[in-house]
Amino acid sequence: AQRLLAVVDKRDPHQPEFRQAVKEVVESLIPVFDVHPEYADVMERLIEPERAIQFRVAWLDDKGKIQVNRGFRVQYNQAIGPYKGGLRFHPSVNMSIIKFLGFEQIFKNSLTTLPMGGAKGGSDFDARGKSDAEIMRFCQSFMTELARHIGANIDVPAGDIGVGGKEIGYMFGQYKRLTKNFEGVLTGKGQTWGGSLIRPEATGYGLTYFVQEMLKTKNTTLAGKTVCVSGFGNVCWGTCLKSVELGAKVVTISGPDGYIY
Q1: N or C: fewer beta carbons within 10 Å in the chain?
Q2: Which residues does the annotation mark as catalytic?
Q3: By C-alpha distance, which of 51, 4, 48 is closest to 27?
Q4: 247's torsion region: left (phi>0), alpha (psi -120 to 50) or beta?
């Protein structure tokens, strides 16, 4: 374990979020490495992404001025299937954060038992204060570069923070223009144009079911509990909805501009 961490510290000294994620996973696997030391060699290959892409995203604001952001896509591992992972649009996004999210996505996807690899992407674009037209032009410019790296059997991005159905729609439209293909290259689409029936609720419902199972180990349930939720997007919405259905009382939601109690 210490050898693996030393390799990461040497290669990526300026990526604290990524190094922390690797440290947590590697240290949790020490009992496994003690019994199967050969797995440490596998972990060394897993730690290094298969491909890390950084690109310029130039787009036109409503004042006619060119703005420039950075785009990222880290295709981490496709050992069991096409790369799969969300796109995050947030000012805090950098290569370290995308790598840490992509690294963890490998394990999250494998636990579904579906043939999906791990990836993550996004941009340091800040949607706050932007018009719908500006968001559309940014998404189209972002996809103009990203399209050459993804595909239904290559890499299938999804939404994440700052990327909801609207942004997915703008990017999917641009992907179709560029490739002439209507294919399942993005998840999180609307139901009327290729999306899944319960996709909007899925993550929040899953979170609530997980909490319910945790509470069962303490011989209790969500019924009658007071719930505070940090968030305001799809995950929050699904969590609030299912929590109320299971008998809980939701008292807060929150976002970057404050909270509602």
Answers
A1: C
A2: 120
A3: 4
A4: left
CA 22, chain centre distance (Å):
17
pLDDT of residue 255: 79
**Each residue of 76-132: pLDDT tens digit?**
999 999 999 999 999 999 999 999 999 999 999 999 999 999 999 999 999 999 999
List pLDDT tens digits, range 235-251: 898 999 999 999 999 99
Put simply, whether the predicted model's pTM sits higher than 0.85 gets the answer yes
Q: What distance in Å separates the CA atoms of residue 127 and residue 39, rounded to the nearest whole number? A: 42
165 with 139: CB under 8 angstroms?
Answer: no
